[in-house]
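agent> fetching stored inputs for the fe (ii) ion docking request
agent> found them:
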Amino acid sequence: MLINNWYVACSAEALGDQPKRIQMLSHSFVLFRDENGRPNCLSDHCVHRGALLSQGTCHNGILQCPQHGWKFNGAGKCTLIPAGSKTPTEPPKRARVPSYPVQEKYGLLFVFLGDLQGDERPAVPDIMPEWDSGDWHKGIITREKNVNFIRMCENYNDPCHVHYIHEFAKWLPKGVSIVDHELTDRYVRAWHASHSPDGDYSDSAGLMMEYNVISCVSRNTNYQPGYPPQIVTAYVTPIDEYNTRIFMIILMPKHEITVLDGSRVRGATADEHKAMVDMTRETVMDEDYVVLKNTRPVFAASVTEELLVDTDRTLVQVRKITGEYGDKFGTVDVKSLRELEDTHITVIPSPDHKNNPKGWVHRTTPILAALDQPFARAAGKVPR
Ligand code: FES
Ligand SMILES: [Fe+2]
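agent> prediction call returned; pasting tokens
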């Protein structure tokens, strides 16, 4: 599980005026809104006696611990110790919990889990420019699955599973070929054209798959003849190494639009879009899950222990760039964490840890140093 990355914690709509507990990277976080409605994210465990702050209350943007009433602001600083202190309104410096940057985009709340400073932090990718135009129907789905997060990202970039797993796509020609391919160290995009049954592919019918390791987001743009295009964007957040939360956004055009080969395709009605969102939530995501939950190994495989073909190129790149990002910016050392978690509270390093490494009550989570990671070494063998 990568640190120093943006993750979707919840939809903006899901965070009301009271604190909300969110599990990410095997840690508990609390999200709450300040007095101006801006979202904040803190480590969820109180520095006093370890209670969950998310079980407390929020008034005028100040979070109050449920156990002894200590108060915390959005920066994680304690502002009041009601009992047991000679200076209740001037708590000691160590009376603070880590605070993590939050950004709202596409109707979602993104949290940066790591210690990179402002300038060093990557931007949340602009992967859905259609969002602000007003010309697209929008729907957000949130689901949880017990599948490792990289396995889930691989699936969203696997063009050939669609025609077999998904009932709605079984009528499509089964052949797929990669027509166009773009790759950076954080981003991969491929245009997969669908073959006709006699082997010809069509430039106007196919699937564009994109993945950006920043926020672990996959975007699928799907063009099929005579049907309005669909843009399906999936953000994947590791709850822990075995469980994943998926935030899926489905866009369909309200009006006729021009697609890649220059042809015009009709827009979708609100009912058609709603049917697509409902079908994805109730059927399509579960069709993937039925297979993924039993796919082994649980974590991404070594490429030498799979028999890969050309159309696996995109998903293998997803695995590789995700592994490389972890090598560079750190991953949670899950084994060491498991040994600590019943006896200690650990926190994901925050930007304030770098400025001020001392003077924290809770220790930082063990982080794997680069190339200590067996997965990354395996991914490093992937041919380009
Ligand atoms: S545990 Fe939070 S105030 Fe005591
Ligand atoms: Fe799928």
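agent> quick read of the result: Residues 208 and 294 are 27 Å apart (CA to CA).
agent> awaiting further instructions
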